[in-house]
Amino acid sequence: MATHGKKYRASREKIDPAKRYTFQEALQLAKECSYAKFDESLDIAVRLGVDPRHADQMVRGTVVLPNGLGKTVRVLVFAKGEKVKEALDAGADYAGGDELVEKIKEGWLDFDKTVATPDMMGGVGKIGKVLGPRGLMPNAKLGTVTFDLQKVVNEIKAGKVDFRVEKTGIVHATLGRVSFTEEKLIENISAFMETIIRLKPTAAKGTYLKGIAISTTMGPGIQVDPLAVKSVMS
After folding, report:
1. What average pLDDT is seen over the chain?
2. What backbone torsions phi and psi does residue 180 show, to the nearest 5 degrees?
3. pLDDT digits (tens, 9 = 90+) for 60-90
4. How many CA atoms are closer than 13 Å to the CA of 60, on its beta-carbon side?
5. 114, 119, 122, 124 alpha-carbon torsion, rounded to 10°
6. Most CB atoms within 10 A, among 93, 133, 175, 225?
């Protein structure tokens, strides 16, 4: 933080820490507070009234953002036979079987998302300790273990976001870039929040949306009033 200390502090001074902003106000502030020389990502953190230690209060899912993420997502597909060509035809950056597993064992990780056909999961399991901690392991619950490669590769390329609540009860996600128009960011936020609300566990009691903050890659967090969610979903 030392290198950007002055700019970060200047950004912080524009934000009232006691205020809970609307999404529109928060996005305007986030854009004003963006000082990096690159196109920063726009991130959201949602604090939920759940206890993820209990399986029946886990919140996990995916959402395809209507306006994408504003970046190229490199997709690797573990497959064999005709499915390799199907994956490449669908737009996957890499597709293959055991040779890719071996390459990853040797330290290669030049990809952002992985998909696997069910018959490849035995081999992929051998690199679970490499992929798992990086959030790169194909997962049937998230739709990334499937024979329908065209559909899932297209969704990922279009801006599919995976998320899960952390043990602190917070869900983090990237919802676009600072360069996006406010309208596009609001549409992405709306799609994300609708999904979060739809996934509310029946076992969760009390207030579900406890806190929301948005920030840019380098910028400070801006608190959003949870009641403002209704305005972006109407």
Report:
1. 92
2. -65, 150
3. 999 999 999 998 889 999 999 999 999 999 9
4. 15
5. -20
6. 175
